[in-house]
Amino acid sequence: MDIGAIPVDAEGDNMWFLKKIINVAGWDYWKEMANHTGEPIKIAIVDNGVRLNHEDLRDVIYHNAGEERYGRNGIDDDNNGKIDDFTGWDVADNDNNANPPLSRVTSSFFSHGTMVAGMSSASTDNDGIGIASLGLNTCIIPIKCVSDLDTSDAYYWYAWDGVRYAIAAGADIINCSWSQGSLTPGQQAILDEAIGKGIIIVASAGNVNPNDENPQKPVYPAAYEGVIAVGATTSEDKVWSQSRYGTFIDVMAPGDNIYTTTAKSDNSYGSGSGTSFSAPIVSGFIGLMLSREPDPQKVISILKKGCDDISIENPTKIGLMGAGRINIYSTLKILLEPEPQGLIDFNAHREISIYPNPSTGIIRVAAETVIEELVVIDLSGKEVAHLTVNGNTADLTAYHLKGLHIVQVKNQEGVFTARVYFQ
Asked: How far apart are CA 334 and CA 305, in angstroms?
């Protein structure tokens, strides 16, 4: 993907939710994050199984380096008590097959975990296959917590065993797209252990029938201190009709008519609604952020600072939607562009101006004092254009540049910076 371009698999009409939270400049920031060279950020999907060979997920499935490749030797190589857990674990059936029961799945039955996984980390910009996600630089640890033989695919009896496995596996993020009314002391201890180890837990705020239940009633683990609680919004930035909201919410994210991967086949897709799908959108985005900023608390703080205020769209829910609806561009701008130390933002100085902005390839700088040098750097810090000047005006030609860049204007008074978008 060229800078300035949107991934093909993010452009369809059914990808409305990505278009709502990320613009072209936001995709430029996203692309800059591809420079990550470390280990992928591990997102544990504690759910009813993930179709491991799905075309849009197979390349982002976690591989346990402690086990023999492909997990076929029948030995617990890493001595964690789980034999051959090379690609996750089924804590409900106590085996190494984290797939849902493939002979029973449909687009709706035993597909929940695969749908959640797609929203978190589906492969993006992969020759237009399937859907797009925000989870660049991430991989999925599939943890199945519903038995193959259960009559309901929503019996999450083993969910907390799944969270324990995620902690032991070294997950960076644990996605919990499920909820319950209260916590036992043992469950609180599990959450405390994860949070104490710096693991970010993202949980869905829960769905309700607003005619039958108080939508502000807290549910868990979402409402537990230190867990990121995610509510659902619509294409109009209204709180989705069945989403919980309240003082326990941290952020909101799209959750209505979400198009994602399903478990019916290796190339199946479908739509669903609910906070279950809002949460993994946030999980994938947090994973992307962690690949650049490893401090979990800084990431959470920046995530909230970048949110859009949707109070106007929801006048009866002011103060009950956390920090607002997530905004990828605004958040990554804060993450990737900290104010340079010792540099002066020339936008605060009328004696220096730059135009046009956005630019189609030529920018003009004018100043009351003599300009000595113009430098353009990309978001990774690399210098991509340079011009030596000895005058009060300068034209810099840079048709090869696309996307957001930082322009530095140097004169006797110091170095002045501006952000310029090249179209």
From this structure: 8
- Hey, what amino acid is at 21? I
State whether the Cα torsion 15-16-17-22 is positive or negative.
Answer: positive
Q: What is the pLDDT of residue 415?
A: 78
DSSP-assigned letters across all residues of 316-385: GGTTSSTT-B--HHHHHHHHH-PPPTT-EEGGG-TTEEEE-SSBSSEEEEEEEEEEEEEEEE-TTS-EEE
Who contacts 298 (Cβ-Cβ below 8 Å, separation ≥6)? none
DSSP 35-52: G--SPPEEEEEEES---T
CATH number of 344-422: 2.60.40.3080
CB 308 within 8 A of CB 333: no
Residue with tokens 């537990």: 224
Mean pLDDT, range 130-147, rounded to an integer: 96
> Do the domains 344-422 and 8-336 match in fold?
no
Other CB atoms within 10 A of residue 423 CB? 12
Asked if residue 2 has pLDDT above 90, the reply is: no
Eight-state DSSP code of residue 273: -
Instruction: Specify the 3-state DSSP secondary structure of 175.
Output: strand
410, amino acid identity? K
Q: Are strands 258-261 and 269-272 parallel, antiparallel or unpaired?
A: antiparallel
Residues near 369 by beta carbon (within 8 Å), at least 6 away in sequence: 351, 392, 411, 412, 413
Q: What are the C-alpha distances in Å from 324 to residues 29, 381, 385?
A: 21, 31, 38
pTM above 0.90, yes or no: no
Q: What homologous superfamily is domain 8-336 in, according to CATH? A: Peptidase S8/S53 domain (3.40.50.200)
Give the Cβ contact number of residue 128 at 10 Å: 12
- Name, in order, each residue with C-beta under 8 angstroms of 108's C-beta and a sequence gap of 6 or more: 270
All structural domains of the chain with their residue ranges? 8-336, 344-422
Task: Express each pLDDT in 337-371 by its tens digit.
Answer: 765 444 445 444 446 778 787 788 888 888 878 88
> Which helix H or strand E contains 196, and what residues bound it?
helix 185-196
Closest CA to 264 of 92, 59, 114: 114
**DSSP-derived 3-state class of residue 274:** coil
